Input
Amino acid sequence: MTQHGLRSGQVAEAAGVSVETLRYYERPGILDDPVRTLGGHRLYPTKTVTVLKVIKAAQRLGFTLREVADLLQAGEHRHGRRPTAGLRHSLEAKLTEVEARLADLVVIRDTLREARDAGCDDVAACAASSCCPLPFAELATVPARPA
Amino acid sequence: MTQHGLRSGQVAEAAGVSVETLRYYERPGILDDPVRTLGGHRLYPTKTVTVLKVIKAAQRLGFTLREVADLLQAGEHRHGRRPTAGLRHSLEAKLTEVEARLADLVVIRDTLREARDAGCDDVAACAASSCCPLPFAELATVPARPA
DNA sequence: CGTAAGCCCGTTCCTTGGTACGGGATGCAA
DNA sequence: TTGCATCCCGTACCAAGGAACGGGCTTACG
Output
């Protein structure tokens, strides 16, 4: 038999990421440091593929890599003793965040629709003359969350 | 009388941006190069304040600086001859984009809600055992737009 | 055993939208 | 004319999340 464990290329392929990404995730501890062959090549356990998929999924759910790392850690600690409720708490927080962004986007969408329906052609002119319902000046004064 | 035109600090103050931002916008041609005093200080026309407000508003509508520049250009070209419909087209395109992002966020929100309601505690374990409704594997296989 | 593919590492670069720094020149009012 | 606020310029830096390079070693296959 050859050595057991997956090589970085195999893991990358299976998880749909690049080999560089694996190395990158290792640095800040998002992935555990893998076992090495005598020659120094990385050997990953099979579950790393799952972990990577989870990471990618969580990123799509709007978590940053740091947050994902914490999420995974929280899960591991739980195996120690009492339930942490850390994951549920994170989910709740992220959900609130997502809902806020959603609300912002709805405002943006409605504004864009209004602008389109108004049929303006020159943004600057419209803003200056208030001939159209584009709330440029008003928007400009709003505190505003970054898009 | 002193020289007519606004100095960078005045423009920045009036538009609610920093002087550095003005310089920054000049580089890629988002702001026209202003007239200079004999000593090299920038002198802006009054309308620059409006332009800046428009830029900030457009950014809040989800346009990148590059797109904003194109939008403003489109408006100017229109003054030449026939209507370009460029702005309407851009609005339409951006609206489509925003709607797509909105749809994504709704999926994300619903997924987060499900996860929360399911009361999972360990992300990796859930993903591996399919004990909970978190669609990690499925999400992982979706082409997916970056959040 | 030979060779080609794969992997190693450190380092640099990219994107976006600015912010910060620092030394020197200017503008303006008194 | 002096003083001080303002402005000039180039450059470096920040966040995140990787992508890319290049020279050299390892591994696996035949």
